[in-house]
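Complex 465.
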Amino acid sequence: MLNNLEVIILAAGKGSRMRSTLPKVLHTLAGRPLLQHVIERALQLESQKTHVVYGHGGEAVPAALDQFAIDWVEQSEQLGTGHAVEQVMPHVDDHATVLVLYGDVPLIELDTLQQLIAMSDGSKLSLLTLKLENPQGYGRIVRSQNGAIEAIVEEKDATDLQRTICEVNSGIMALPAKQLRGWLSRLESNNAQGEFYLTDVIAMAVADGVEVSGLITEDSYQVAGINTRNQLATLERHYQLKQAEKLMEQGVTLRDPARIDIRGEIGREINIAADVTIDINVILEGHIEISGGCTVGANCLLRNARLGQGVTIEAMSHVEDATIDEQCSVGPFARLRPGTHMHPHAKVGNFVEVKKSDIGEGSKVSHLSYIGDTTMGSNVNIGAGTITCNYDGVNKHQTIIGDNAFIGSDSQLIAPVTVGAGATIGAGSSISRDAPDEQLTLTRTQQKSIKWRRPAKGKPSKDKS
Ligand code: UD1
Ligand code: CA
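Predicted structure with uridine-diphosphate-N-acetylglucosamine bound:
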């Protein structure tokens, strides 16, 4: 790759057709802002510098993406694409090749950009174009008799004849910085939109004898810009289908590739081994690691989760910031909250919520429980309806449960509290003091029986009359 490449991403436009208070480039595709897709692609080019022109929405845009080491340049008034690029030029080296990208064209691929940069070759102007059945709204590529590119004409400035041209400008181009600087300084805004058009530099390049070449892409999704929420949704579905195809190629079974959402990049944040089966309507978000032999049931959400070999997540489960070791089973209707670590062969069943807790090896929390701030040993059995009372209204407290303990159903463990190894808690107990190893501990009033007759319908009781 060129060692003096500089990328300029245009992202100052208003995006009024989104009808949103959020700047357009911060709307998300696959869980990431549109602009982030473009920035990440640009950074893959390993250029000298990446500049982003922002404006509409003000500091919200750089603030939302401050994790990236890029040069943010403000365009305080949006006077056109040429004006936008001009704002950056004082920061650009004279010997650089400049690549122009758009913040609202998120799916451009690396190899396309590499081809375009190679075509520019340090001294030429190369332009990414495409042919559309319906070219409406785009700048048209005007070619001479012998097929050489002569100019770009914006639709609003085009003659009727020019409007019939189907080859359109993607907006993405690579060109030498030094010449670009000169051309930009000569731009005028005497056109239909009263803007300084970047596209006018094409005709200037031709006039100056700089070679202009077009790279025609067949893949319209790569250069599709987002102006409306409808277009955003269309591109999202396209992207998701591509991600699903990637997973299937890697040996993952998807019950329906049209019904999975992957919010993260496969191979980077999202790693799924072969022979994993994923049922319909599953959302995978953030850092996901799924080992071989796992199955994920329908309608599950996994956000930052690690699953060891052979884990089963049953339908309708919600898993966030959790580690689930091999052969565990979760759900249906389970909620694993941040800080949950299930050790091998553990089970969390239906209507169980777990937070910041270790569920020890082979331990079971099968039904209707809340386990929070708990360290649980191995082979523990937690009865239905058990609650760790971890919060006193101000502070959180720990519960410790030893190996082989058995907690009877409908018990409350009032933290801080320790239940010893091998201890048994009688059903329905409220345990507020430590329960010793190997003993039965229970808090229960004696059961009693009273002779009593149920009131009969329509007969007032004697006591009250
Ligand atoms: C532009 C091209 C057109 C091309 C189309 C492809 C020009 C004059 N026209 O038209 O040939 O077919 O893209 O989608 O370049 N922006 C700024 N500052 C500004 C104006 C725009 O940063 O002052 C940014 C926008 O945020 C956007 C990009 O530049 O990311 C394109 O601007 P937009 O107004 O959408 O250009 P189009 O009219 O679509
Ligand atoms: Ca415009």
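The mean pLDDT is 96.
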